Amino acid sequence: MSTANHHRRTGTLAALANFWIEHHDHGEKLDRKLSNATRRFRGRWFGSVTKAQLVGARVIVSQEGSEHPSVQTAAKVKAFLDRTATEFGAEHALAIVIRTLNDAPRSAAIGNWDQLSDPPADP
After folding, report:
1. What CA–CA distance (Å, rounded) separates 68 from 16?
2. Helix (H, G, I), strand (E, B) or coil at 103
3. What is the per-residue pLDDT across 2-33, written as a single tens digit (0 to 9) for each?
């Protein structure tokens, strides 16, 4: 049984992976792009993200209906990424959102309740 925390995490990973794929086209195949994304998606919110997790998250979000919590979360994160890209450029948007997730307090509202146990490091 999936929890709300799991759905939010799945939606967030799908949105981040899709943004990475859309904005980092260096002529690479999808498999390679997702492998590169796993190296970029680091920090306390992410833990150990695998390519299989990114693929799975993208599949769930692409196949479920608009009322599914993972789909709704993905839409919200995509909107956040798009607004951030408009303000700071696509090349900086992903880094800003990753930093925001990693610095956020432990909360099921953003999908990190099961992931985090330690407080964020002081800047």
Report:
1. 18
2. helix
3. 677 788 889 999 999 999 988 876 666 877 78
Distance of alpha carbon 40 from alpha carbon 18, whole angstroms: 13
Q: Please compute, for residue 41, the number of CA atoms within 13 A of its CA located in the half-sphere on the CB side.
A: 26
- Phi (first) and psi of residue 78, to 5 degrees: -60, -45
pTM: 0.82
DSSP secondary structure code for residue 4 in this structure: H
User: Distance between CA 105 and CA 89 in Å, rounded?
Assistant: 26
Distance CA 8, CA 110 (A): 6
Cα 38-42-48 angle, rounded to 5 deg: 70
Rounded distance, CA 11 to CA 26, Å?
25
pLDDT digits (tens, 9 = 90+) for 37-56: 888 888 888 888 888 999 99
